[in-house]
Design goal:
With 327 residues, the chain is α/β, with parallel strands linked by helices. The chain has 12 helices and 10 strands. The strands form 2 sheets. A 7-stranded parallel beta sheet has the order 3-2-1-4-5-6-9, with helices on both faces. Helix 7 packs across helix 11. The longest helix has 23 residues. It is globular, with a radius of gyration of 20 Å.
């Protein structure tokens, strides 16, 4: 199967391409679609992926393609400085997605796998989210993803394009950045963390598991026309995640039991309220539907994913002396 992958040079995109290329028997050829040249084998430079992406660029990229994995997006960022965040997000995440989907339908692409976000379901609640829950996106990023989902179902109904939507939670793995990397760095350095009193439940997904779920959605006949929530299948509290992260790094977790109200107050004074909300809040996923309907099982456990992430981090931060073994 020939598959076009947008965002192929990104954190998740690299994992998706690697998974597809190493699927046995060799069933996939990959067309990485990139904004600017990245030196990837077989890459197709399409420029900015938004509602105005040149149709000729897409036509060239989609020649002979059977499936598309759409990862490219304007990602959620802390302290967004855009004058109009919703317009900025929708330009890429909504209009860019729908423009590509229309080009896919015109080019005869069979299946379109769209990577959305669990934030479409909502931000925080005690009970685990399921596919049956009514969407409740709150911020501009989540709204743009929800608008894209709605538009994709309209295009599917009009053209017969087989759409599959995945809503993952926080993705981690080699190459991870943002808050997860900051937490990994703090644990690696043995920093005391005031997170020991947090009692929450959060779902995550290892990049290798998300890539394998995408592979399954490209292949499985029953995936067409479905939305799936996908995760590692295990929920953890923030303190438990820190302890297991520390174990993967070969370090000791240093957790201080600071009461959450005190933690929130201190964060507010420092202008870090959003960060504490993410660390202290719950956002869990019930991912039984994709396991049941597609017979999918995550190939990696949470601990295996953390070990691979920790190994990558250690390698990235090894000194030349340590890396070469010289004394």
């Amino acid at each position: 199967m020939k598959v076009l992958v947008t965002g192929a040079s990104g954190f998740v995109g690299r994992s998706v391409c690697d998974t597809l290329l190493h699927t046995e028997p060799a069933a996939y050829s990959i067309v990485p679609a990139v904004r600017v040249p990245r030196g990837l084998p077989g890459e197709c430079v399409v420029g900015e992926i938004d509602g105005k992406t040149d149709w000729q660029n897409w036509r060239e990229a989609l020649q002979g393609v059977h499936g598309v994995v759409h990862l490219a997006a304007r990602v959620h960022v802390m302290n967004d400085r855009a004058v109009d965040p919703l317009t900025a997000f929708c330009s890429i995440n909504t209009e860019g997605t729908l423009n590509l989907a229309r080009q896919c339908a015109a080019a005869g692409v069979r299946r379109f796998v769209f990577i959305s976000s669990i934030k479409v379901n909502g931000e925080e609640r005690a009970a685990a989210y399921t596919e049956a829950d009514a969407p409740a996106p709150e911020d501009a990023y989540a709204i743009s993803k929800w608008k894209a989902e709605q538009g994709l179902w309209q295009i599917a109904a009009q053209t017969g394009l087989e759409v599959v939507i995945l809503r993952p939670p926080l993705v981690y793995g080699p190459g991870v950045g943002a808050n997860f990397l900051a937490l990994l760095r703090a644990v690696s350095r043995g920093m005391p963390l005031p997170l020991g009193a947090i009692d929450n439940r959060r779902s995550l997904i290892f990049a290798g598991n998300l890539a394998d779920a995408i592979r399954c959605c490209l292949e499985h006949p029953a995936a067409a026309g479905k939305t799936f929530l996908v995760s590692d299948g295990e929920t953890v509290s923030t303190p438990e995640l820190v302890r297991r992260m520390a174990a993967a790094l070969g370090r000791s977790a240093r957790l201080l039991a600071v009461p959450v109200p005190v933690l929130r107050f201190m964060a507010a004074l420092a202008g870090k309220s959003a960060l504490v909300t993410r660390l202290a809040g719950s956002l869990a996923i019930n991912s039984r539907a994709i396991r049941r309907e597609l017979d999918w099982t995550p190939p990696f456990t949470l601990d295996e994913g953390l070990r691979e992430t920790a190994a990558w981090y250690a390698n990235q931060n090894a000194s030349p002396r340590k890396a070469t073994g010289k004394t």
